[in-house]
Amino acid sequence: MYPDDTSPLSDQLPDDQIAQDRLTLQPVLDSLKTAGYYAYGMLDETNRWTIAADDELGRIDVRVGEDGFEVVLQMSSPGLYADEENPYKQSSRSRLARIAIPRIARGFLEPHQTARWDDVDQGVAVTEHYELPFARGGDVGEFVRQQHPQLEQILTLVEQQLD
Question: Per-residue pLDDT for 8 more than 90?
């Protein structure tokens, strides 16, 4: 913390904020587990407590936001051009996809949705960002389950535009 920080949290140590977020996110963890996800708590890359879940459909991250829970859903299609035998053509198609995906996202996606090329999976990755009220912590698992088909449709839409 900076000495001149006058925010309400300025007198809290980072560990205090993490402990508070852990308590706040406990209903989210329970909800995701009840919905059948393997969910767990962890510190994210910015040292914020996060409830995460990974499954065959994608990744879920939930954090404490300003006015509620920040829910981030991500899905990817690994190896989009893996069946291309010519390595030069495979590389070219991947490069073209990297260039085209931002344009496709601007033309087809809503402001809470993003698309990008995933270098690790070598395919398209789409993300949706939501903010749910704190009172809905127990509903997060069901909310996520309901959103997955829409996220899959967005992934398919972006891939179709690349053909």
Answer: no
CA distance 3 to 21: 23
The 3-state secondary structure of the chain, one letter per residue: CCCCCCCCCCCCCHHHHHHHHHHHHHHHHHHHHHCCCCEEEEECCCCCEEEEEEECCEEEEEEECCCCEEEEEEEECCCCCCCCCCHHHHHHHHHHHHHHHHHHHHHHCCCCEEEEEECCCCEEEEEEEEEECHHHHHHHHHHHHHHHHHHHHHHHHHHHHHC
Beta bridge partners of 23: none
In whole angstroms, give the CA distance from residue 30 to residue 28: 5
Decide if 58 contacts 118 (C-beta within 8 A).
Answer: no
pTM, to two decimals: 0.84
Q: Tell me, what's the pLDDT at 107?
A: 95
pLDDT at 103: 96
The encoded tokens of residue 55 equal 């499954």
% of residues, the chain, pLDDT over 90: 76
Q: Scanning the structure block, which residue is given the tokens 């407590």?
A: 49
